[in-house]
Amino acid sequence: MANDFKSLFMLDPEVTYFNHGAYGGCPEDIFNAMLEWQKTLEKNPSKYMEELYDNLENSRYSLSKYIDCDKDDIVFFNNPTTAMNTIVKSLNLNPGDEILSTDHEYGAMNITWDYICEKTGAKFIRTEIPIPYESKKQFVHEIEKNITSKTKMIFISHITSSTALIFPAKEICELAKSHNILSFIDGAHAPSQIPLSIKEINPDFYAGACHKWMCSPKGVAFLYTKRILQDSIDPIIISHGFGKPPKGSKLYSGSNYLNYHQWQGTRDFSNVLTVPKLIQFLNDNDWVNVAKNCHNLALYARNEISNLLDTQPISSDEYIGQMTSIPIDTDDPGKLKAELSKNYKIEIPVTSWNNKNLIRISIQAYNTKEDIHKLSDALHEIRSN
User: Does the pLDDT of residue 167 top 60, yes or no?
Assistant: First the structure.
């Protein structure tokens, strides 16, 4: 089955690709659908722009059904980092206010919080979540014991980037609500890797990517904001969507949230307009079952590579989706990554996190056990030299 799926993607057949979690991979049919939208734009740009908001609404509607929320509570961004910055820069933070998070967060998010805290005098609290990670209850306890009267928001990843762990988003949002604290979930890795229901999680804010595990063209992400908070979120860019729209204008909806953030100057939305076709592709190919098979293959990969490297898993099975990070003993992570790429045509990240080196394996529909054996053989050969 995996070999059949590989033919649907545009990846170099000579390369063993284990880095879907970073930049994804787009099926050729969806990529071609994006090109068709670009051609439609160039044939009659004025007509394309007049119809754009209806087409964007169609994309929002399709995505909202897929992630279980209202279509008017999500807006498209180029990436989760931009979406996150929109929220962060709208917060009214004062000296001493605290943002409570973990020591597993994505680097760009850490940089953003450090930036805004330096400007406002707020504090970014990174709760240590020890590995091996084996208990939701313990996770919630570690976060809760760091809540103070100054805590304004809890910010966590749904699935972490470096450590590839599934964190208890729903339980953390419930905890935040019980303390009258805002909740913000970085869900870059969640859509299509694991089942996702925004309504069930009930966050105040949720930023996710479609160009990772959903396999959209690059540059498709979304921001969900709870309805009651939408008017408090300022756009990063002030453009025609800001202020009172002209009467009868087709370019504006009745929502300030959509007006402010959806239009920020001329932009090619062809990638975003593929979302309905993309979700149809996922449904037609039973992607829920594909994700389950990939999860099982990820566990197989973790066990094989962990045994080879003589290291212990950093979590129990239930906190692994289609990615798994494995501790690896290397003096130079960058050199090892480059050697795997150059000498073995294996693309896989090798990174440092909390003074530990990790190799992260992403499993998508096109990966096979043979790919894992190729990685195992390459690592064995490198370690033997």
Answer: yes
